[in-house]
Specification:
The protein is mostly helical. It has helices spanning about 5-10, 15-25, 25-60, 75. It has a domain at about 10-60. The termini are far apart.
Length: about 80
């Protein structure tokens, strides 16, 4: 086995490291880790929802101000001022 392959074998992802550590814990502590992960996921979800609400609030200021106009791209590029 090459040195590179041995080094790759030693490198573990964060999830793998957490898995190994949690396996060594007693059940109540492993459950606490799981609850902590659930808390982090809920917090991330709440942060995402808060950012979405702020973005929608910002866009709401412009509601009704934009009137989409259909245009022909070819006509747009065939203007007198562009010649």
């Amino acid at each position: 086995m090459t040195t590179y392959a041995m080094n790759q074998r030693k490198i573990m992802s964060t999830a793998e490291k957490i898995f190994e550590e949690v396996q060594a814990l007693p059940e109540p502590q492993a459950r606490a880790v799981l609850e902590f992960v659930s808390h982090l996921k809920a917090q991330r979800s709440a942060d995402c929802e808060a950012r979405r609400a702020v973005a929608l609030q910002t866009l709401a200021k412009y509601r009704g101000r934009f009137d989409p106009v259909k245009f022909n791209r070819d006509e747009l590029h065939d203007r007198e001022s562009l010649r």
